[in-house]
Amino acid sequence: MCDVPFGVTQLSERTAEQFVGDAVLRSQKVIDDEADLIPRLHRAVRDVQINEGEIPRGLDPGGVLVRHQALN
Predict the structure, then answer these.
(1) What is the pLDDT of residues 14-23, one digit of tens each?
(2) How many structural domains are present in the chain?
(3) Residue 34 falls within a domain, yes or no?
(4) For residue range 10-61, what is the model confidence (pLDDT) as tens digits?
(5) What is the span of the domain harbouring residue 71?
(6) How far is the C-alpha of 7 from the C-alpha of 41, rounded, in Å?
(7) C-beta of residue 48 within 8 angstroms of C-beta of residue 55
C-alpha cells in the first residue's frame, strides 16, 4: 500500500514546494476503483478480526483503516 522508504526519500531530499509541484492527480476511475476496493478490504479485515481469523499476508489492517477514512 505504501512504500515508506520511498516516501521518506522523496520528502527528505526535496522541499515541500517541490514535492507538491511534482504531484500528479489520479484519474477519477482510479479514485473510484480505490473507493470501491478499500471498504471491501476493510470489511474483510474486520470480519477476520471479529471471527478471530488470520489477516491475509501483505494486508495491513491499520493501513486499510486509514485509507478507508481518507477516501470518505
Answers:
(1) 888 998 898 8
(2) 1
(3) yes
(4) 888 888 899 889 889 999 999 999 899 999 999 999 999 999 988 888 888 8
(5) 25-72
(6) 23
(7) yes
